[in-house]
Amino acid sequence: MSCTNCGTAGGGKPGGCKSNGGCSTGGCNRMNAHDWLQNLPIADLDSSCKVVEVSFNNGSRKDFFRNITLQQLEKGDLISVEGVSGFDVGEVSLTGEIVRLQMKKRGVKEDHADMKKVLRRSTDRDIDIWKQNKAREPEAVIRSRAITRQLRLDMKISQVEMQADGRKATFFYIAEGRVDFRELIKVYASEFKVKVEMRQIGARQEAGKVGGIGSCGRELCCSTWLTDFKSVNTTAARYQNLSINQSKLSGQCGRLKCCLNYELDTYLDALQFFPDNCETIQVAKGNAILIKKDIFKNLMWYILPDSNKQYPVTIERVNKIKSQNQQGIIPDELGAVEITSSKPKEVEPEYVDLVGQISLQTLEKAERKRHQQHNQRPQRDQRPQQRQQGQGNQQQKGPQQNPPQQQRRNPNQQRPRPPFNRRDK
User: Fold this and answer.
1) Rounded Cα distance, 81 and 297, in Å
2) ∠119-123-124 over CA atoms, to 5°?
3) How far apart are CA 76 and CA 409, in angstroms?
4) What is the pTM assigned to this prediction?
5) How confident is the model over 89-126, as pLDDT tens digits?
6) What distance in Å separates the CA atoms of residue 21 and residue 67, rounded to the nearest whole number?
7) Predicted local distance difference test score (pLDDT) of residue 341
């Protein structure tokens, strides 16, 4: 199984992440958009898009660059682009007309004067320098965290991204409030010998950069396709009748899961048909308290004070009881409905004790009975006269003499089977 970006292209050249289908999910280069315009022919080459989308650090950061040399670039190619006082190495993630749609989505103009340019295809020297500087990132994260602890700054360094030529480093940090890191930048510049850029991110962005597997068993939404992070609160869980359990509702970032907002609009539309101010209704047994609302079966579940049993009541019945309570009438019963499940009930097999039911004695009796039945079966091919003659000869000769020889038979005649375990006495 392989993703669409890792299949083998024409000529035996692997595309995408160069793993030739090894990643299977596209996680090696995240946040990719499917190029559904790649098979369309270009009518006018002059009006075609001259901009390509380049991804850095396995898709965690993407930017647009102008292809001034009009090189034929393909998805997955490593190219050298303009950087801060040097160059940077990235991977081509999109080419063609689909880039214009992505630029429009992000609010980037194609003729922007500050858009950086594509320098060349990455040479072997560029790739070697890029790999050497990328190997410095884990050590830089550990050292930068130690420096912030020494300076007693209330912040956390999440990730350090080095430029390909090693002249610039971007420090991504998380902080609750404003942090005065003017002294920190000077220490970083003298420690790592690079130009320092500080960029603040949130806990959700950090989870997207780190990546991982969610409780649903799939890759995190923030690291695969989610780019717009909306606020999530416990009200969304209450509308969906979810228990307020912080450990179950929180994601790897420590915040409420983004997927709580996915079905919220559907629940809000369905709850419009349910009556308001029906948390408590009066019946003869006491005040019935609303427990939950089932939008799929249009039922409202109530509980009475004298028992812990939950009673499902239809919306029409709740409206009727509510109107009766407003008139001062207290009904005798809630009028709960019976819920029948369409799923067939599985019948559990009864316990059977098989120990001791089969013994050696029963097996021996059955074997002895089978031998007796086989011995009593008459010989079909032996005539009755020959059988009597043979028995008479056996009585005359005694037990030590051999039995009489059988007469010659027709070769086409079937040879009779000798009796099983039979001895002449």
Assistant:
1) 58
2) 155
3) 89
4) 0.62
5) 999 988 888 888 888 888 888 888 889 999 999 999 99
6) 28
7) 67
